[in-house]
Every structure is written in C-alpha cells, then in structure tokens.
Design goal:
Layout (H helix, E strand, L loop, with lengths): L1 E5 L3 H10 L4 E3 L2 H7 L4 H11 L4 E4 L5 H12 L5 E6 L2 H12 L4 E6 L2 H10 L3 E4 L1 H6 L4 H14 L5 E4 L5 H9 L4 E4 L1 H8 L2 H25 L1
Parallel strand pairs: 1-2, 1-8, 2-3, 3-4, 4-5, 5-6, 6-7, 7-8
Helix pairs in contact: 1-3, 4-5
The protein binds erythose-4-phosphate.
The site of erythose-4-phosphate has 12 residues, from α7.
Length: about 220
C-alpha cells in the first residue's frame, strides 16, 4: 500500500521524503488554510518538487466550468498534479471532461461505495473514501474502503482506492488489510506509526548498556 502525506506543510513533506516513505501528497483547502502564507499554487509547486508521486490539488468551484478552469490551471503546475474534485453531479461531469483531456483526477468526499463506483466510471483514477468522518457519525468508514477495493478488483477497474480522513495508526493497518491501494495520513499519524514504547525504551537501554561496557573497558585499561 502506498502512503501519501495529508498536509500542505512543506517541512512535514520534506521530513517524510527524507525518511524514504513518501509516495505522494494530498492537500485540501482546510490543510492549505492551516499553513497559508503563500498562494496555493506556489505551495503546490514546491510540494511537487519534493515528491515525484501524485500531489492532489483541490478545486473549490461548484459549477462545471469553474472546476474545469481550476483543474486545468493546477494541472499546468507540474506533471504529477492530480486534480481533486468533490463528488457531485457537476463533479462527475468535470471528472469525465478532465479525464478526457488526460488530467488525472482524485474524486474526494466519497462516503459510499456507489459514489466511488460512479467516480471511477466517470474517469477518476483515485477515489477517496473518508474513513474518519464516517466513523465520527457512528458508521464503519472502513467498509467503504473494503467494498471499493473489492469492486475494482472484481471488475478489473483501474481506479485506486485512497483511504482518506485517517485519524490514527490503526486506520492505516485496517486500510492496508481492507485492500486500499493508498492511505493518506496526517504527519502526526505517520510519526505514531514509527514509534512503539518498547522500541523507544529498547534504544535507550541499548545505548546505556553500550556506554556502561565502554566505560568499564576504559577503566580496566586505565
Ligand atoms: C484528503 O484527501 C482529505 O481531504 C483528508 O484526508 C480529509 O481529512 P479530515 O476528515 O481529517 O479533514
């Protein structure tokens, strides 16, 4: 399963790239608002230099022409831009037209398998079910991930399931087991995946034992 970082924060993206675990990035207007400071386009351009993987840029228009204009503009930033279009009737039309133009689309705000199926049929290459937001309303968000992964496999559809709205490390494991092709994770969750209390404790213990053995050796020699 590929791992994308769900952020517009350049430092976080740079760190994950250095760790060698970054397969792509997803951004959205909320994540952009959190960092602000420069234009969305300039942040996207910088992100695209940090990863050769897909970088999702979200359109906010609700009419087809607006979505097309935003999508075409973002697609010109770099070859690895993927335009994010929210699921809607207009969204499906925009996805279909952008896909016809060879622009890759990530259909976002997916909360049911039927929505994901339609988005894939319209031509979206990434389908983003929002796991955490479904969990928040007492529905099992992972069911949509599992169903879509099965549907795409059964019908040999090319679209990839991108598990989004990931809130904790268990979501990542569950998404991988459910057959998600990609999980997009906040940096905090990526850090939580790295650590285990026994690993961290073990590192401290090994270092202390090493220092003790070296000190004893030095004392014997001296
Ligand atoms: C990513 O593509 C989504 O926009 C993001 O995962 C949504 O996450 P949230 O539900 O935590 O805002």
């Amino acid at each position: 399963m590929k791992i994308f970082l769900d952020t517009a924060d350049i430092d976080e993206i740079r760190t994950a790239a250095r760790w060698g675990v970054l397969d792509g990035v997803t951004t959205n207007p909320t994540l952009y608002a959190k960092v602000g400071g420069s234009s969305y386009e300039s942040i996207l351009a910088e992100v695209c230099k940090l990863t050769p993987g897909p970088v999702s840029a979200e359109a906010v228009s609700d009419d087809v022409d607006g979505m097309l204009e935003e999508g075409r503009r973002y697609a010109k930033i770099a070859p690895n831009i993927v335009v994010k279009i929210a699921m809607s009737e207009n969204g499906l039309e925009a996805i279909s037209r952008l896909a016809d133009e060879g622009i890759k689309v990530n259909c976002t705000l997916i909360f049911s398998s039927n929505q994901g199926l339609l988005a894939a049929k319209a031509g979206a290459s990434l389908i983003s079910p929002f796991v955490g937001r479904l969990d928040d309303i007492n529905q099992d968000g992972m069911i949509v991930v599992r169903e879509l992964a099965e549907i795409f496999a059964i019908h040999e559809m090319d679209a990839e399931v991108l598990a989004a709205s990931i809130r904790h490390p268990q979501h990542v494991t569950q998404a991988a087991l459910a057959g998600a092709h990609i999980a997009t994770v906040p940096f905090k969750v990526l850090q939580q995946m790295v650590h285990h209390p026994l690993t961290d404790k073990g590192i401290v213990q090994f270092k202390a034992d090493w220092d003790k053995a070296r000190a004893e050796l030095a004392a014997r020699k001296g």
